[in-house]
């Protein structure tokens, strides 16, 4: 395995890569690196920056496609690994792909399946050929190659497909292994490009690797940008690294990526992470956290996470979030359902309807957050937006602002008044669970449950 | 069909009005068509049904889905679903603002009629018996007693459109002779208390008919006919076999009759309708949904198309439902039922629904629930047409020839989340799926840096990775 470690990867003489998308840059923040753009995909336009809810197994946690559409979602994620197991490629072929399977008229993005295999199946073993693993069905040895992954994603018919990459956890101390993974990911990208059967109807995104090593990231950016895929993902992150490191990597990559292509950071979904990442120049994000946390009774709001299972909400007859425009929170007079915290509390962990309602709210919150960032960028008031966002999120208590966010925003020229940087450790100890959760928790579409 | 002037006058005072529109051929059947009108709600043509709720929610269906994709006209609410805190504090629902707290609390579409009863149907067998002034109920915190006084207070404050009066029913156990004699007495006493304390005829009250022999409650039933008939708004039958025994006085005949008799199949519904039942609660809809069974029947016979396309020929009776767990549907692009107008059938196909069940995705049960409720609405619509056309009895015979008598057995598992109310009864799944494979490695670290949660544990357990008790 080590033999391939430092083989330089020549840029192959590729024919110009067709693209099934158009990317139109609408506005740039004059202070930060944030951008607003229109991305037109085979199943319609979407507006960047964008959050993509994760419909792991071709459904978003109890919501009908109709309800998902009503949240404003026009691009959701399906997981190739899960669809490959169930319903399986044969069924997908027979049915005519994932759009037809789930009755979804809008866009779908699929991952390569490799990351989830490595994460879910601890016996997965990576060789130059691909990812070896034991079938979850019958334990027989299987192999997922870049060619298989693309073939499966071609069958799924997703609007954006991802290359198979060699993922090493970012905190791994093994620099040689990290370098090998980065180079192998480039080689696998070439194999994915060659294998891709539908470049005019499906957009292949490369995935930048290289751990927390900025030079390695830069090298990977250079190599992969040369392959000219329609879009670019920054991968390997949200695997437990410090948020400072995360921000440095995103900042470095976005600085090296072409302006006129969408940039997707995989596995990111906490509101603070989204705001900072947009400021660092990223456009697209996905995460299971908003829908997962809904099933634990948590509502995401501009003022932080509320656990509606807490007894204090048993007699709270206000909406989940005052002023929220989602179907649940809007009053009946305004065409909404008039759902109260008290009702969600009453249902929490006893009837799935309670989780469905919070899922609707949380997805709406995430999409609305992205929309409001976009508007702020277009109107060139994004720095003010960021300040207000952190103010609201922390009850106007600047001492609660996370240090990593302050530092990251400094990279983008934004400074908060009266804040000082404290040690990350102190920050972690002095804050409740919400803020001390590692970003990694977020990336657990790799452990998405049924 | 002519309505007496006395009835007309009393109507003006009532929130609930029931008009009998048409009778079936009286020589053959007591089936009838009626119209239930409640101020502010959508009129409900009978025979019809109320959906069952659990903690105020129709299982699997958010209120927007109820509005958009179902046609049922009312919801049955069990008080025991709302008052688990009653021991220590005022139950939150009692603090809900507005003139219709039950409606508001559950965010129900305003068009739906609410029916409040003390207990769920079916109800979990109580650990202790009822007393002279209270019954035993089962809340999410366990067994409690509910006094008639408390029930009257709840019914008044929550303002359901209809409340079923408290009944002395030993759910699940067979009462001894000593007990039987008390049941009717207690129930009558409780009803008297409820009616005498009621203000402005709100809410409408359905008097319970007990699941004991007529002779054991004849005094009570005669009292209903003689004394209570003008004050009550309907009858709620815990045993539909009592229907023929009810005195056919004008005052009782005009009342809507609700079945809480837990019909186990469409055939039982038809039988009760022919005995004069107007309204139903139908637990088998939810049972079928949770079992992944899509109801598949039409009254009185399958549509031409369907008979030919999917059912073949021959005289064997057709199954009443389709087991959607079966992998035979995995590539089927046909709807659950051909010609079904429901959202699930218009927008999706069997392959997707089979996939969702097999992947244990909650949407699978939601779609089947939408379909099953639509199937019931269509069924009742056809029944009313049949009564109108005076062909109801022969149509029932045809239905009995066309379809099997009971629903198919379930093969798959129910949804992951089960209500507390299932704990004490029924065939509850014993163990989560046995893992189809096992990891060979020794260490128990599954995915790095991920905090194991109870939900995650469930997933991992399912994948055979670890054993962790549910929280
Ligand atoms: Zn909301
Ligand atoms: Zn249907």
TrEMBL record, chain A:
Name the record gives this protein: Queuine tRNA-ribosyltransferase catalytic subunit 1
UniProt subcellular location: Cytoplasm
Residue numbers binding Zn(2+): 324, 326, 329, 361
Amino acids binding substrate: 111-115, 165, 209, 236
Catalytic activity: guanosine(34) in tRNA + queuine = queuosine(34) in tRNA + guanine
Record note on quaternary structure: Heterodimer of a catalytic subunit and an accessory subunit.
Organism name: Venustampulla echinocandica
Cofactor(s) needed: Zn(2+)
UniProtKB/TrEMBL annotation, chain B:
Primary subcellular site in the record, as a coarse category: cytoplasm
KW Aminoacyl-tRNA synthetase (keyword) present: no
Cofactor(s) this protein cannot do without: Zn(2+)
Textual note on the cofactor: Binds 1 zinc ion per subunit.
InterPro entries found in the cross-reference section: QTRTD1 (IPR028592), Queuine_tRNA-ribosyltrfase (IPR050852), TGT-like_sf (IPR036511), tRNA_ribo_trans-like (IPR002616)
Region ranges (Disordered): 405-445
SUPFAM superfamilies: tRNA-guanine transglycosylase
Location relative to the cell: Cytoplasm
Domain of life assignment: Eukaryota
Family listed: Belongs to the queuine tRNA-ribosyltransferase family. QTRT2 subfamily.
Role according to the record: Non-catalytic subunit of the queuine tRNA-ribosyltransferase (TGT) that catalyzes the base-exchange of a guanine (G) residue with queuine (Q) at position 34 (anticodon wobble position) in tRNAs with GU(N) anticodons (tRNA-Asp, -Asn, -His and -Tyr), resulting in the hypermodified nucleoside queuosine (7-(((4,5-cis-dihydroxy-2-cyclopenten-1-yl)amino)methyl)-7-deazaguanosine).
Quaternary structure, from the entry: Heterodimer of a catalytic subunit and an accessory subunit.
Protein name per Swiss-Prot or TrEMBL: Queuine tRNA-ribosyltransferase accessory subunit 2
Protein's organism: Venustampulla echinocandica
């Amino acid at each position: 395995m080590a033999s391939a470690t430092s083989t330089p990867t020549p840029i192959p003489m590729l024919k110009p890569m067709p693209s099934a998308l158009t990317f139109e840059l609408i506005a740039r923040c004059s202070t930060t690196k944030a951008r607003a753009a229109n991305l037109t995909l085979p199943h319609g336009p979407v507006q960047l920056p964008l959050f993509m809810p994760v419909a792991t197994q071709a459904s978003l946690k109890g919501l009908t496609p109709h309800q998902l559409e009503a949240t404003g979602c026009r691009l959701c994620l399906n997981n190739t690994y899960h669809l490959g197991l169930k319903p399986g490629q044969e069924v997908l072929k027979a049915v005519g792909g994932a759009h037809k399977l789930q009755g979804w008229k809008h866009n779908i993005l699929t991952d390569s399946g490799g990351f989830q295999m490595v994460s879910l199946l601890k016996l997965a073993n990576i060789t130059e050929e691909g990812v070896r693993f034991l079938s979850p069905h019958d334990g027989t040895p299987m192999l997922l190659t870049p060619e298989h992954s693309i073939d499966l994603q071609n069958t799924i018919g997703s609007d954006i497909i991802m290359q198979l990459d060699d993922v090493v956890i970012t905190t791994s101390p093994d620099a040689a292994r990290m370098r090998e993974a980065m180079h192998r990911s480039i080689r696998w990208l070439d194999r994915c490009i060659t294998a891709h059967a539908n470049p005019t109807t499906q957009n292949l995104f490369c995935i930048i690797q290289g751990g927390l090593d900025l030079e390695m990231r830069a090298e990977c950016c250079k190599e992969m940008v040369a392959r000219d895929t329609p879009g670019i993902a920054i991968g390997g992150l949200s695997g437990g690294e410090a948020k400072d490191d995360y921000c440095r990597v995103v900042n470095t990559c976005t600085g090296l990526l072409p302006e006129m292509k969408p940039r997707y950071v995989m596995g990111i979904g906490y509101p603070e992470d989204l705001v900072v990442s947009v400021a660092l120049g990223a456009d697209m994000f996905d995460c299971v956290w908003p829908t997962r946390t809904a099933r634990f009774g948590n509502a995401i709001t501009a003022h932080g996470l509320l656990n509606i299972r807490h007894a204090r909400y048993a007699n709270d007859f206000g909406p989940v979030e005052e002023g929220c425009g989602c179907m649940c929170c809007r009053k009946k007079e305004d065409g909404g359902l008039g759902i109260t915290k008290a009702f969600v509390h009453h249902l929490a962990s006893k009837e799935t309807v309670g989780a469905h309602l919070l899922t609707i709210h949380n997805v709406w919150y995430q999409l609305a957050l992205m929309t409001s960032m976009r508007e702020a960028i277009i109107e060139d008031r994004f720095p003010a937006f960021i300040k207000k966002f952190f103010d609201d999120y922390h009850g106007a208590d600047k001492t609660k602002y996370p240090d990593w966010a302050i530092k990251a925003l400094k990279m983008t020229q934004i400074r908060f008044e009266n804040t000082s940087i404290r040690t990350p450790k102190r920050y972690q100890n002095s804050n409740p669970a919400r803020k001390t959760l590692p970003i990694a928790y977020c990336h657990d579409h790799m452990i998405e449950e049924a | 069909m002519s309505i007496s002037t006395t009835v007309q006058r009393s109507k003006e005072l009532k929130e609930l009005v029931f008009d009998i529109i048409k009778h079936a051929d009286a020589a053959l059947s007591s089936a009838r068509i009626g119209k239930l009108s409640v101020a502010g709600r959508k009129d409900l043509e009978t025979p019809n049904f109320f959906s069952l709720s659990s903690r105020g929610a129709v299982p699997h269906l958010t209120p927007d889905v109820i509005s958009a994709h179902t046609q049922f006209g009312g919801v049955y609410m069990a008080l025991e679903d709302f008052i688990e805190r009653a021991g220590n504090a005022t139950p939150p629902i009692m603090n809900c603002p507005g003139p219709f707290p039950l409606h508001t609390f559950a965010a129900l579409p305003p068009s739906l009629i609410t029916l409040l009863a003390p207990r769920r149907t079916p109800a979990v067998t109580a650990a202790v018996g009822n007393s002279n002034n209270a019954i035993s109920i089962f809340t999410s915190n366990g067994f409690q007693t509910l006094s008639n006084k408390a029930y009257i207070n709840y019914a008044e404050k929550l303002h359901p459109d209809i409340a079923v009066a408290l009944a002395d029913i030993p759910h699940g156990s067979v009462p001894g002779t000593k007990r039987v004699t008390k049941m009717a007495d207690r129930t009558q006493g409780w009803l008297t208390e409820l009616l005498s304390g009621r203000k402005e005829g709100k809410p409408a009250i359905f008097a319970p008919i007990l699941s004991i022999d007529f002779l054991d409650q004849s005094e009570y039933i005669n009292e209903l006919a003689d004394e209570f008939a003008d004050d009550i708004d309907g009858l709620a039958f815990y045993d539909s076999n009592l229907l023929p025994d009810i005195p056919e006085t004008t005052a009782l005949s005009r009342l809507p009759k609700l079945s809480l008799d837990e019909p186990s199949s469409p055939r039982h519904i038809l039988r009760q309708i022919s005995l004069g039942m107007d309204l139903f609660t139908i637990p088998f809809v939810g049972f079928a949904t949770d079992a992944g069974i899509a109801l598949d029947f039409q009254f009185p016979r399958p549509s031409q198309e369907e008979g030919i396309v999917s059912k073949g020929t021959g005289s064997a009776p057709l199954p009443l439902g389709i087991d959607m767990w079966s992998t035979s549907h995995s590539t089927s692009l046909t709807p659950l039922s051909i010609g079904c107008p429901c959202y699930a059938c218009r927008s999706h196909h069997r392959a997707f629904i089979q996939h969702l069940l097999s992947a244990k995705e909650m949407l699978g049960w939601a779609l089947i629930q939408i379909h099953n409720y639509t199937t019931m609405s269509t069924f009742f619509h056809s029944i009313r047409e049949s009564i109108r056309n005076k062909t109801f009895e022969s149509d029932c015979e045809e239905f009995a020839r066309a379809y099997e008598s009971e629903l198919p057995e379930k093969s798959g598992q129910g949804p992951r989340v089960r209500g507390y109310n299932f704990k004490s009864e029924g065939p509850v799944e014993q163990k989560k799926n046995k893992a189809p494979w096992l990891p060979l490695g020794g260490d128990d670290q599954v995915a790095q840096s991920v905090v194991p949660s109870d939900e995650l544990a469930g997933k991992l357990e399912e994948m055979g990775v670890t054993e962790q008790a549910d929280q």
